[in-house]
Write a structure and sequence with these properties.
The protein has 280 residues and is an alpha/beta fold. Helix content is 39%, strand content 21%. It is built from ten helices and twelve strands. The strands form two sheets. Strands 1, 2, 3, 4, 5, 6, 7, 9, 11 and 12 form a ten-stranded mixed β-sheet that branches. It has a two-stranded antiparallel ribbon with strand order 8-10. Helix 1 packs parallel to helix 2, helix 8 runs antiparallel to helix 9 and helix 9 packs across helix 10. The protein starts with a strand and ends with a helix.
């Protein structure tokens, strides 16, 4: 039997990107011959007609309706929870709906997984069409994105844009932690893999495109007023929400590091220009 992959996505009000993402997904080389996919898409209360458009164009997709407050991590958690309760899949694949796969993407992911005997997570590296640079993928321990070089490279953490989780890893590690609304969940899962004495690797080559963001988060920007910086930091979409970041760091780096960064985050919030001076 050919391997089965549960493809997990979550979306909110970007219908065209979601449809484009699914178009690239269903155009994969080897689909239904070398592997089969079942798509689980959480539509987190979109108001732009995403649900109907997906059902019309991709009727085999399982669409799960959210309440509008799930965001990325909790949306992906719901998709994964639904998928794992539906069938015993060989793989679970995270896919951001703004990521457009190359035709051989899943083939490359599966080859990498087979090379690791299906006992490691495989992160797909993406590039920006605008900048022609790497945009997302696996990171070194120092936080630097690892560029594909034709070989499997072990990664310390990874972005959740495209990640293939074999059943062996899922059985050992579980699914995404729903305590985190939006960000942090992918990094937490990568470190949980290590905690379970397993490994993660990036693909040998790029597997798709996704536009990244090189600018500082709004809460770090001295050009914004303090109230707006506070609103940005404590937004569910913030990448360093103090409460959730504290939970994450306390678990993996200990209370001293968590407290230190809780303080430094708020100092940076109050005096963002100090960091810019240090950087310059």
């Amino acid at each position: 039997m050919i391997p089965s992959i549960a493809v997990l996505l979550t979306c909110h009000n970007r219908k065209e990107k979601t449809l484009q993402c699914l178009t690239h997904l269903f155009a994969q080389q080897g689909l239904n011959e070398d592997f089969k996919i079942v798509v689980f898409l959480v539509d987190d209360a979109s108001t732009d007609g995403t649900e109907k458009a997906v059902k019309d164009q991709f009727p085999k997709t399982t669409v799960i309706l959210g309440n509008g407050s799930l965001y990325w991590n909790r949306g992906m958690h719901l998709a994964w929870k639904t998928a794992s309760a539906t069938n015993d899949f060989d793989y679970y694949m995270w896919l951001n709906d703004d990521t457009f796969l190359l035709e051989d993407a899943i083939k490359n992911l599966l080859e990498a997984a087979e090379q690791t005997k299906n006992q490691a997570a495989i992160c797909g590296s993406t590039f920006s069409l605008e900048s022609k640079k790497i945009s997302y993928g696996g990171n070194s321990k120092e936080g630097t994105l690892l560029a594909p070089n034709g070989t499997l490279q072990e990664t310390f953490s990874f972005n959740g844009n495209v990640v293939l989780i074999p059943k062996f890893v899922y059985t050992k590690v579980g699914i995404l932690d729903p305590r985190f609304p939006h960000a942090i969940g992918d990094f937490e899962y990568a470190l949980r893999i290590q905690k379970n004495k397993l490994k993660s690797f990036i693909t040998k080559d790029f597997i798709g495109s996704c536009e990244g963001s090189e600018k500082l988060p709004n809460w770090c920007s001295p050009s914004l007023s303090l109230p707006k910086r506070i609103q940005s930091l404590y937004s569910p979409l913030g990448n360093s929400h103090p409460y959730y970041f504290f939970i994450f760091e306390q678990k993996y780096y200990g209370p001293i590091t968590a407290i230190k960064h809780l303080i430094s985050i708020h100092i940076r919030l109050l005096f963002p220009q100090l960091w810019l001076k240090k950087k310059n």
